[in-house]
Sequence to fold (107 residues):
Amino acid sequence: MASRASVPSLALLLALLLSCAVMMSSAARMLEEEEAPPKEEPEFPPHLTVPEFPVPEEHKLPPFPEVHLPPKPELPEVELPPKPELPPKPEIPSIPEFHFPEPEAKP
Fold:
């Protein structure tokens, strides 16, 4: 339970809270009653008409030109050096399993 000294301060806080609530509700009511002025929409000129272009009935492409390339030169066979011997793959060390010790029973 609250002490006698804190009762007046609690009453004061409650009064402040109530006054704030009353002010907020009256401000909200005033905003609701206010009518917003109607917004004027800008007038735009009418859209321009797009001319219709004639569509060709059939697309004819010019004949593909013949291309005469010189013959490919024959390349000599190249001997590659033998593949080098690689050392054996090292074994990856395994991670030892770890278990937390079980807590000892308390007497």
About this structure: The radius of gyration is 46 Å.
